Amino acid sequence: MNFDWDKYWWLIIILAVLAGPFVQALFAPWRQYLRYRRQKDAIEALKVYAAQNRDPPPEVLDALRGRWIWRAGRTARTVAENVAGGVASGVASGVAAGVRGDDPWDRRWDRWERRLEVRMAGEPWRRWNWAIFSGAVTAGFAFAWRYAHANNDTFLIVAIIAGALTIAAVLSAIAASFWRVN
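The chain above was modelled as a monomer; its predicted structure follows.
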């Protein structure tokens, strides 16, 4: 069978969109390795502070918690506001002490933390929901290919792609059900 890409050019767009999760899955080990290295470096810095009997700065502790991007930007912004406002640079408005204020970024961080806690509690259910949904889409396109439009190959291609997504969703749901990361 010779597939005519000129006639079905729009399939390239669909394939490109569906390739996104696969590309993310390919780069996931690299992201995890970088996270591991960042935490390892932060632990080494904590060892240095412990050997000197000093308290580590909040940035080191935030790197261990994965909050270093948000906190670093917030600390730099607060120091810049204090210097511009005539406040001594050593006195921050509670950010260096770990107290969250009325800053929109502080509120955004709090919302993000709450959503993450709720999301992680319901993660297996969310993944099983996606597996069931993608399975229903696969069954719908397979039915359409077989009965609705007299063996139209377009529905078969979409059913195969949706079937691959269903398999990935089921494996992901099984992994989320049995291996929980705390």
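The chain has two domains: 23-119, 122-182.
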